[in-house]
Amino acid sequence: MKRDQSSVERRRSQILKQIREQEEVRVEDLAKQFGMSAMSVRRDLQYLEDRKLITRFYGGATVNPDYRSVSPEEELALYRRLLGRYAASKICNGETIFINGSMAALGTLDFITAHNVHIITNNGMAVTKKRPKGVSVTLTGGELREHVMVGDNVLRVLLDSTADKTILGCAGVTPNGEFCYNIPMEIGINETMIARTAKELYILADHTKMENVAENTARYGSCTYDRQVTLITDEKADPATVESLRKLGIEVYQVGLNDVNF
User: Fold this and answer.
1) Do 22 and 141 fall within a single domain?
2) Which CATH number do you get for residue 171?
3) How many Å apart are CA 60 and CA 262, to the nearest integer?
4) Full-model pTM
5) Could you report the per-residue pLDDT of 186-213, keeping only the tens digit for each?
6) pLDDT tens digits, residue range 234-259?
């Protein structure tokens, strides 16, 4: 069911992108392109119009005249916030969550709606984050490398802790399921978080983290995980890489700009 919903969201994102590029589309053309019925196309268009992303007319749709195009930098920032929002939706009342040094992963804090949530993180930027009511944060301490805490102190705190779920960011994801990190010491920290986690593991990576990574893996520390992983990425992620990861048993969820309502 999750895979089916993800496919619907990807299709709607592709339709939206096409409308923005072409300015106008016809229902019959979309039906042929996506191999679906005209009725299904109309449902997708209605979904997009309800969110004020397009304007429908008889037999087709056009761009919403109130739509403001965004720069690549603004678009990427939106995607990263959407990754954090989706990760936050997976946090339940009373849970303890590990978050690593990734700024995308730390962005989860902005969207937590669950109560009595405890965050344990080695991300020093957590002190600047405004926390939702009912969310507490513990910093691991350790040696600061830019904003990321590393070293034995971090590992000692993690080994004395347990979490329900872990949310990680990364520097890259390869088609063969390797997750890459800029700071080699992060690998040991991430693996300790995972080992002390009882439930789900979520990894956040926008589409830029999945471009030309395979040939550049030597620049990073990399590892694979021997437990179920859910990768949260966006609609612009390379389709071949996404399909390859799914074949490896990695669950992939893709957010889209049509999800923006904040």
Assistant:
1) no
2) 3.40.50.10470
3) 27
4) 0.76
5) 899 999 999 999 999 999 999 999 876 6
6) 988 998 999 999 999 999 999 987 66
What domain range includes position 227?
Answer: 72-259
CATH code: domain of residue 33 = 1.10.10.10
pLDDT digits (tens, 9 = 90+) for 154-181: 999 999 999 999 999 999 999 999 999 8
Do 129 and 213 reside in the same domain of the chain? yes
Residues 25 and 44 in one domain: yes
101 and 213 within one domain: yes
Number of domains in the chain: 2
- ∠ CA 136-179-213, nearest 5°, is 130
Is 6 in the same domain as 119? Answer: no
Q: Which long-range contacts (CB under 8 A, 24 or more apart) does 19-27 make?
A: 19/48, 19/54, 19/61, 19/62, 19/63, 20/63, 20/67, 20/69, 23/62, 23/63, 24/60, 24/61, 24/62, 24/63, 25/60, 25/61, 25/62, 26/59, 26/60, 27/59, 27/60, 27/61
14 & 119 share domain: no
pLDDT at 3: 47
Determine what percent of the chain is predicted with pLDDT higher than 90: 65
As a whole number of angstroms, the distance between CA 224 and CA 222 comes to 7
| Whether residue 23 has pLDDT greater than 50 | yes
56 and 78 inside one domain = no
Is 131 found in the same domain as 113?
yes
